[in-house]
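Is this the right way to post structure tokens for a design question? Let me know if I should format differently. Anyway, here goes:
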């Protein structure tokens, strides 16, 4: 078996300029596929609220939701480093609650690290978590848990002032001990500057090619949803159409009694059949 990826490996990958791959996964079967494909990091993202649970935002996702999916994912993984998203308000109320929630994701869920959104306002929490031996990934730029405060899903850090603020947040998170930083929907020039200045790796989503790694939501990459496609998403497959074709063919074959055919049917041995009548 290939050696499991650790947070220390990621630092080395940055130093050696080897791009880091990261994808989301929310269930056992997908985790097996992503892990087998040699993806370095698996995020059990709170995007499961959108793509699995059918919510409009990530805000309704709870600790129990994330924990349930983290357990399924870690059962399927041998090599990738599994990171669990801390959901909305699970790291804001108190230090005690933050610690307890993060500990559950590692102890009960089997994750190796947690991810939290925000900059200087979460630095105290990052320090406490890392002091307790819980690796933390940061997340700056478009932070979906603050969608109602941001007034929608928009590219962040587009003005010089906003870019400077983001740079300050990135420095503060590194100082507090995050092992890597997700940069979501920010101009490529700013992501490049952050990546060059920080010692820890940056993982981009809608942040250009100069980050140390890239992350996508697996449903977007596979084209499971054929509706809205943000600019930063590249569909590597069109599973929506493939799945629809399979479902419609199944429907028609059952209606026409073409399925199951003999190939998919069990028979009784003749001598046993004779005894029956
Ligand atoms: O929840 C998620 O999927 C994420 C990624 C987009 C980074 O936070």
């Amino acid at each position: 078996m290939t050696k499991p990826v650790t947070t220390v490996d990621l630092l080395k990958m940055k130093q050696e300029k080897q791009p880091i791959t990261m994808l989301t996964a929310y269930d056992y079967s997908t985790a097996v596929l992503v892990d087998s494909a040699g993806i370095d990091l698996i995020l059990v993202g709170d995007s499961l609220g959108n793509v699995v649970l059918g919510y409009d935002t990530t805000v309704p996702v709870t600790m129990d939701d994330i924990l349930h999916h983290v357990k399924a994912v870690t059962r399927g993984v041998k090599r990738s480093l599994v990171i669990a998203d801390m959901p909305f308000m699970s790291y804001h109320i108190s230090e005690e609650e933050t610690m307890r929630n993060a500990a559950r994701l590692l102890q009960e869920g089997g994750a190796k690290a947690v991810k939290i959104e925000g900059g200087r306002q979460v630095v105290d929490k990052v320090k406490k978590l890392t002091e307790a031996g819980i690796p933390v990934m940061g997340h700056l730029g478009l932070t979906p848990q603050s969608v109602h405060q941001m007034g929608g899903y928009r590219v962040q850090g587009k003005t010089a002032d906003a870019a400077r603020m983001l740079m300050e947040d990135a420095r503060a998170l590194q100082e507090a001990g995050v092992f890597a930083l997700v940069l979501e929907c920010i101009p490529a020039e700013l992501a490049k500057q952050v990546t060059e200045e920080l010692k820890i790796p940056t993982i981009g989503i809608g942040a250009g090619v100069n980050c140390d790694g890239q992350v996508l939501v697996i449903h977007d990459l596979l084209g499971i949803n054929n509706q809205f496609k943000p600019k930063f998403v590249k569909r590597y497959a069109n599973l929506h159409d493939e799945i629809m074709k399979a479902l419609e063919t199944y429907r028609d074959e059952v209606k026409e009694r073409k399925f199951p055919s003999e190939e998919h049917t069990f028979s009784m041995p003749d001598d046993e059949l004779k005894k029956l009548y």
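Format looks fine. Someone answered above. Worth noting: The beta strands are 20-24, 41-44, 81-85, 113-115, 136-141, 180-184, 202-205, 213-216. Residues 92 and 98 are 7 Å apart (CA to CA).
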